[in-house]
Design goal:
Distance between the termini: 42 Å
Largest sheet: 6 strands, mixed
Strand order of the largest sheet: 3-4-14-9-10-13
Structural class: alpha/beta
Shape: globular
Bound molecules: pyridoxal-5'-phosphate
Order of helices and strands: EEHHEHEHEHEHHEHEHHEHEHEEHEHHEH
CATH class of the largest domain: Alpha Beta
Length: 397
């Protein structure tokens, strides 16, 4: 892990990325968040932490994940496309990089219970996994509606020993689960650590999660150098839900303006419909889940229910780092519709024999917009595998 203390795109002293970020939390949460803020960097850069983190990433998660030259896809797009294979991580996606980091941090803070929120269940599974690994009690809040929609992941969490608690307020989906997980944390401040699943939440979560996920771009640099003689690609591309796989993919390239940063958001039915999750296209500045960022909201500030065919991108906000990348024009954002993503996912299966998560298919679909040249190099984050999405893909066949 390299730190980015002096980057224009890293977090500042106050927990901000440009105009976005901070810790917008109720008084009651202040001691928990402050404990983290004061300790996280010192803990995660200690040698014993780094040794244990890297060993687990290697032996348990299966890192480094391959950087795969996708020859047939490259031929179709007339450029050079490399896929960063986060789909090959244990549990099937990048999320486990973060949960491994946070469970090690929780142990060092003397916490013996974990609370987390989950929407589709992917982060819940990644959290339940590391809790089983460490023998730590795990409570996962999940919207009642999502519990019904995502039965296989609920079963996984239970088999891993986690308690899944239904969130019954509001729309009974992710944002309600997040609110209830935060409430649980407020009521159990001394023995419990809250593992947030993306680069969202109050400072220091976005920065902490980005640092854990930065192993992705650290590996890309070394692998690209070895394969092409050049450590920097021309483009890095990732889908953005909250933005953690994207933050990890961009991290070591943020200050190198030669590397173009590309973000794919979920447009759902389209940004001109009321069924979308493309936050930079439809959102306005506001406070959601403890940080100031862009969020989809009504004129009087109520969160709008997002829509995306992919559960992992179905979030009404984005992390503050991405809001800053958008506002500063450092990153180029594309809104990819459900249909475009499904087509791109189907195409990858046929061209490369890889079935991507529908989230990752959004990043793949964005490639058509890039007009990358024959000699240019494009690295795409293949954030997860598509096994969980087979039923949805089948409806499109
Ligand atoms: C959860 C998830 C995402 C979206 O989360 P980010 O924090 O934006 O990375 C993307 N891809 C997969 C496979 C996921 O499981």
């Amino acid at each position: 892990m390299i730190n980015i203390e002096n980057s224009a795109f890293g977090v500042d002293e106050r927990g901000y990325y440009g105009n976005f970020g901070g810790a917008w939390i109720p008084e009651m949460l202040y001691p928990n968040v402050e404990e983290l803020r004061l300790n996280y960097k010192e803990i995660i850069y200690k040698k014993d932490f780094q040794d244990e983190f890297n060993q687990l990433l290697e032996d348990y998660v299966g890192r480094p994940t391959p950087l795969y030259f996708a020859a047939r896809l490259s031929e179709r797009l007339q450029t050079n496309v490399y896929l960063k294979r986060e789909d090959l991580c244990h549990t099937g996606a990048h999320k486990v990089n973060n949960t491994i980091g946070q469970i090690l941090l929780a142990k060092r803070l003397g916490k013996n219970k974990i609370v987390a929120e989950t929407g589709a269940g992917q982060h819940g599974v990644a959290t339940a996994t590391v809790c089983a690994l460490m023998g730590i009690e795990c409570i996962v809040y999940m919207g009642e509606v999502d519990i019904e929609r995502q039965a296989p992941n609920v079963a996984r969490m239970k088999m891993l020993g986690a308690e899944v608690v239904p969130a019954k307020s509001g729309s009974r989906t992710l944002k309600d689960a997040t609110n209830e997980a935060m409430r649980h944390w407020i009521n159990n401040p001394t023995d419990t650590h809250y593992i947030i699943g993306s680069v969202v939440g109050p400072h220091p979560y976005p920065d902490m999660v980005a640092r854990f996920q930065s192993v992705i771009s650290e590996e890309i640099k070394a692998q690209l150098l070895q394969k092409t003689g050049r450590e920097n690609p021309d483009y890095v591309v990732a889908c953005v839900g909250g933005g953690s796989n994207a933050a990890g993919t961009y991290f070591h390239f943020l200050d190198n303006e030669d590397v173009k940063i590309v973000a794919a958001e979920a447009a759902g039915f389209g940004v001109d419909t009321d069924k979308s999750a493309a936050t930079t296209f439809l959102g306005k500045p506001g406070v959601l889940h403890g940080s100031k960022s862009l969020m989809m909201q009504t004129a009087d500030g109520q969160v709008i229910e997002p829509h995306s065919i992919s559960a992992g991108l179905d979030y009404p906000g984005i992390g503050p780092m991405h809001a800053h990348l958008w506002e500063s024009s450092r990153a180029q954002f594309y809104a990819v519709t459900d249909d475009e993503a499904m087509r791109a996912g189907m195409e990858l299966a046929k061209l490369e024999g890889i079935i991507p998560a529908i989230e990752s298919s959004h990043a793949l679909a964005a490639l058509d917009n890039l007009k990358a040249g024959k000699d240019e190099t494009v690295v795409v984050s293949l954030s997860g595998r598509g096994d969980k999405d087979l039923a949805t893909y089948m409806k499109y066949l």
